[in-house]
Input
Amino acid sequence: MDVVVAGQGYVGLPLAVRAAEVGHRVVGYDVDQHRIKQLTAGESYVEDVTSSRLRAVNGCGAYRASADDAALAGFDIAVITVPTPLRGGVPDVSYIEACARTLGGHLRPGATVVLESTTYPGTTEELLLPVLEQASGLTGGVDFFAGFSPERIAPGSTRWSFEGTPKLVSGIDAASLEVIKSFYDGILHTTVPVSGTREAELAKLIENTFRLVNISLVNELATVAAALGVNVWEAIDAAATKPFGFMRFTPGPGAGGHCLPVDPAFLSWKVQQELGAPLRFVELANDVNRQMPAHVVQRLVDGLKGRGRPVAGARVLLLGLTYKINATDLRESPAARVAALLTGLGAQVRGAEPNLPHGTTALGVPLVDATEQELAASDAVVLLMDHDRFDLTAVEKHARYVLDCRNRLRGPNVEVL
Output
């Protein structure tokens, strides 16, 4: 089929390349001209798609990147994978609307449009469908098919591949569901049909809200456990020996990324709009999560004070700036808030992030390598993200004082969050 994947970011590019690899003719559409130049040159900027895979589908003509909407003409199926950020606590679906309007100008009878962008329940039928109908003059469910299939990308995961992760699929009617399921059946191992688009939209939000609530729970426990004289990490490990009714989550400096700080707020906003009542668990979880960087900084301030060193003027090395282990993504990373708070207190902050080029800056701090010399020269080292590329033994040996937010280090110079 002629396939369009609108949006060539961490969701859209893996889908586009996989669809091309299984035999579809794919246009990767994006309004970012710089991205299009990189993709055309066979340079991948998404960690789950190697440049060699991209060059292979480029070379055989199965995939081409374009910022020209004329390239969308004649598509059989189009998948929307554009961003859905929060603006002042309100979901911004303007990218979905703009993309739907552009696709609608090329929509023809028998074609299909699928929304993958994370959003609130009702978006597919209340926003996407009317825009497509207005732009095309066609009627959804009569002249064309449409539905929602939430992305389940796990950047950098070695356990769950794109094609190996079960995929929820839904349609605005039974015929749309059948067409959409057939498309994803051809590129993924497992699809899971859902009766309606609202249920599929809510399912995606439930997945990430579940994670946010449980991460926030153990984070709050970590903030009080030390004062209670309890090793929270050992207690969590002990609880995890129960073979039923428990799932292990661990503390950290806060939950970041494109999903956890954002997606549950979509649900909370929708409930407030429709029912006039807050979604209390989401609001509480978000509040706990937002406080974690400040807790990390206060622990560091106290640790330095106990060693006779004020935080003002102290040289602090932050290990791991991305929001996820072994990833390159800095979006919503709690390290940004930790760095800002420490800088505001007068600390000399540096960051070591092996997944980004050193010698530059990220999150407002200079990047350095976590060398023996750098570790030894720091008054404090904070392990925010325990990337595989860090030599943790060297950290234990050469750092004078370490605040370990991941429970990976041991020694008299180490405090664990």
Summary: The mean pLDDT is 93.
